[in-house]
Design brief:
By secondary structure, the chain is mainly α. The chain folds into 4 domains: about 30 residues, no CATH class; about 120 residues, Serine Threonine Protein Phosphatase 5, Tetratricopeptide repeat (Alpha Horseshoe), CATH 1.25.40.10; about 180 residues, Alpha Horseshoe (Serine Threonine Protein Phosphatase 5, Tetratricopeptide repeat), CATH 1.25.40.10; about 160 residues, Cyclin-like (Cyclin A, domain 1), CATH 1.10.472. It has a two-stranded antiparallel ribbon. Strand 1 and strand 2 form a beta hairpin. Helix 19 runs parallel beside helix 21 and helix 24 crosses helix 26. It is elongated and about 90 Å long. It starts with 8 loop residues before the first strand and ends with a helix.
């Protein structure tokens, strides 16, 4: 029988009276200190979940040890469990070790992350008061400066209850925005900014609501106004970058990206915003850096976070990470199964459902512009089989001659067969190529431009209009489409993009208007 004997060599009396050596007895006392040291080891290796587990075990052995509680609180904060972290920190400074002043610094950070700026300022000032030579003194001063920028909304005159009420109202408006209730969200946010004219978060969310509603000019102006009054506001910078990206204003996007490149936010949600913004504007390497960092350190993101993490991972050739992140999306939103954002680029797989759905859309549509658009999309997808199927269908159903011409032209571009097409259809495709070269929009806006052009093309063909100047036609189509969508764009801007004069642009705009 082996027993623990204080780490000494154990001896046992045998039945015969002889003393027997029964082996080395190793002392293995698993006390709070043991689990705390294990936790520290995992913490240093940034395995936060295991560190949390061992620190909790240490606290269970000695719940009155302030160092154990403080270290557990630090890990909880890094995992985004700010409320639980705060409870432990307050227990330390109020009941166990009032002179452990670093707890005030950690409390200030936690409340800042929660958006409760009044509480954050209170604890930051307590740290500066009691620990003027402390390790975190400069960091606390920086935090106070940041808080003064983010929370000027209160001008120092409101109590914390007013601020908490403000946060609740903001969260309600944000939820409306997330649920797609854009008009309601806009009304709530407009009420907020009237009451709190420097509540930048409400302005930024209102800008998003206006953008989603199609009021792009208003969205841009709101963001610009925030930046005039609150220089460097991260959400406004990110929003503007996205707005300009979808407007194709690459110079402005590049300028904003340079500003964002030097930003290193301390707030987890700000880091998420930065990563998602990079993904939205196609800067996938930068997006992956921020989003992956957050995931590695335990950030509990929503479905949108994992969506953009999967996208940025996929387009930086980290396919397994992309698939793993997408599983998180499906877990949070099961209806997204099979809707991976990168599937649309797999255009050579003839078994894809999307291709056959386009065929069904073609057969079920009476809209001639839509039919031409479908043929164009199938050509761009490299789907010869589907185009050949539709070519047979078009001939057997005696579709209009220009539809027959167009499917022949699409097949010709993929197979190099010499189908004869009229000069009008050929010139029309040249305009599409010019649009694709110059205009970099979201898929929805791009397709609206093509639909508008097909309408002009079909009506112009009947009127025997010539379409030789592809640059001018493309510029006119882009301008008219964007103005119809209420985008903030000038004639000079479009004319310069296509290297034509504004007078030429106006001439072709009139032609477009007459042919719509």
């Amino acid at each position: 029988m082996v027993t623990i004997d204080g780490g000494h060599m154990g001896r046992q009396q045998s039945k015969s009276g002889e003393t027997e050596t029964i082996g080395q007895i190793v002392c293995f006392a698993q006390d709070g200190e043991y689990f705390f040291n294990k936790g520290i080891k995992f913490y240093r290796h940034r395995d936060l979940y295991k560190a949390k587990k061992y620190f909790q075990r240490a606290v269970s052995f000695d719940p009155q040890e302030p160092v154990f509680l403080c270290q557990l609180a630090a890990v909880l904060a890094e995992l985004g469990e700010f409320e639980e972290s705060n409870l432990l920190l307050i227990q330390v400074v109020e009941n166990l070790e009032p002179e452990m002043y670093e707890c005030y610094y950690f409390l200030a950070n936690n409340y800042a992350y929660l958006g409760l700026f009044h509480e954050a300022k209170k604890y930051a000032k307590l740290y500066l008061k009691y620990s003027p030579d402390g390790e975190f003194y400069e960091d606390t001063e920086d935090l106070l400066e940041l808080l003064s920028i983010e929370s000027n909304i209160l001008h120092g005159t409101h109590e914390s209850e007013d601020e908490d009420d403000l946060i609740i109202k903001q969260e309600y408006a944000r939820k409306l925005l997330e649920d797609g209730k854009l008009e309601e969200a806009s009304r709530e946010l407009q009420i907020l900014i009237k009451e709190y004219p420097e509540f930048w978060s409400a302005f930024n969310n209102l800008a998003l609501a206006q953008f989603y509603l199609g009021n792009v000019n208003k969205a841009i102006k709101l963001s610009q106004d925030v930046l005039k009054k609150n220089t460097g506001n991260l959400h406004a910078l990110c929003n503007l970058a996205v707005f300009y990206h979808f407007l194709g204003r690459r110079h402005e996007v590049d300028t904003l990206v340079k500003s964002l490149a030097v930003v290193y936010p301390i707030d987890m949600d700000h880091r998420s915003k930065l990563g998602v913004t990079y993904a939205l504007i196609g800067k996938y390497e930068e997006a992956f850096k921020w989003l992956r960092w957050l995931q590695k350190y335990g950030y509990d993101g929503d479905a949108a976070f994992y969506y953009w993490l999967s996208v940025s991972a996929y387009y930086t050739n980290r396919k397994q990470l992309a698939y793993d992140a997408w599983q998180k999306v499906i877990k949070l939103n099961p209806e997204k199964k099979g809707a991976e954002p990168w599937l649309k680029v797999k255009t050579n797989d003839k078994n894809q459902t999307e291709k056959y759905s386009l065929i069904e859309q073609f057969k079920g549509s009476d809209n001639e512009e839509k039919k031409l658009l479908i043929l164009l999309l199938l050509m761009r997808a490299g789907n010869v089989t589907s185009l050949q199927e539709l070519q047979t269908y078009i001939l057997s159903n005696k579709e209009a001659p220009y539809v027959q011409e167009f499917v022949n032209l699409m097949l010709n571009k993929l197979t190099n067969n010499n189908h004869e097409v009229s000069s009008t259809i050929g010139d029309g495709l040249q305009v599409i190529d010019t649009l694709a070269h110059h205009a970099h929009w979201s898929q929805a806006i791009e397709q609206k431009c093509y639909m508008l052009w097909f309408r002009v093309l079909l009506n112009g063909k009947k009127a025997e209009t010539r379409f030789k100047n592809s640059e001018a036609w493309a510029a006119a189509i882009e301008y008219c489409c964007l103005r119809a969508e209420e985008f903030n764009v000038t004639q000079r801007e479009i004319a310069e993009k296509y290297q034509i004069s504004t007078s030429t642009l106006r001439k072709y705009m009139n032609l477009v208007t007459n042919l719509v």
